[in-house]
Amino acid sequence: MSVLLLCNSLKRLAVTSGSATSTRNISACSSPLFFKLTLSLYGEPLKKKKRLDPAIVRAREERKKKKLEKQIKRLEKNSRQLKPIDEVEVPIILLNENRSRKASVLTPEILDERVLLTKAWSRYKLKSHLADVQMIDRIMYSQQKALDELQKESEDLYQAAIQVDPDFLPFIVKGPVENPPSKTYDPPDGEYIDISKKWE
């Protein structure tokens, strides 16, 4: 009982050393085994803001503005550039080599002949395309007409005719449905090095 009275009396006891700058606070709970020391926290006055010269502030803002304008100009300049494709680019060695055969000079007659050939080829391909489209339309019309006549004759034959034939394009695959695990396979740990190029 005397221990409890002692603890209650020591709950808010403050121990002060000889110097006025260091203070330790002692707090205790209901049991004397739970004595805890807490550090003293001293407040600090706020630092006074430095008054900057308006000219310096204006110069900083101008510098930021110029930097942003420069970045915007750089982005606008590179916006029309397409991402290069390594497979399509011509090697520099080939670009620097001199031509082994001189380019022939094209006369106006040859240029006119090439233009006429291009136009004739375009007309031929147009006629060929129209003929193919008309042939496909005739086949589809004949097929639909035959199906309509078949439906009038027999509904069962019509339903059998419109079913998909799986044997029309046979596809057969033979092989194991599950491969046994390989004892010598060393699985990766999931780490990789990204070597992809970045175009900014």
Summarize the structure.
This protein has 200 residues and is mainly α.
Outline the secondary-structure elements.
Elements: H1 2-9, E1 14-16, E2 23-27, E3 36-38, H2 54-78, H3 92-96, H4 108-153, H5 155-161
Antiparallel strand pairs: 1-2, 2-3
What can you tell me about this protein's structure?
The protein is mostly helical and 200 residues long. Among the domains are: 54-92; 105-162. 46% of the residues lie in helices and 6% in strands. It contains 5 helices and 3 strands; from the N terminus they run H-E-E-E-H-H-H-H. The chain has a 3-stranded antiparallel beta sheet with strand order 1-2-3, with no helix packed on it. Helix 4 packs antiparallel against helix 5. Residues 14-21 have low confidence and may be disordered.
Identify the notable features of this structure and list them briefly.
3-stranded antiparallel beta sheet; 5 helices; extended; single chain; mainly alpha; 200 residues; 46% helix
Got a strand count? 3
Q: What distance separates the N and C termini?
A: 79 Å
Largest sheet: 3 strands, antiparallel
Number of H- or I-type helical stretches: 5
Arrangement of strands in the largest sheet: 1-2-3
Write down the secondary-structure element order: HEEEHHHH
Structural class: mainly alpha
Strand content: 5-15%
Mean pLDDT equals 79
Shape: extended
Calculate Rg over CA atoms.
45 Å
Name the helicity range.
Answer: 40-55%
Uncertain ranges: 14-21
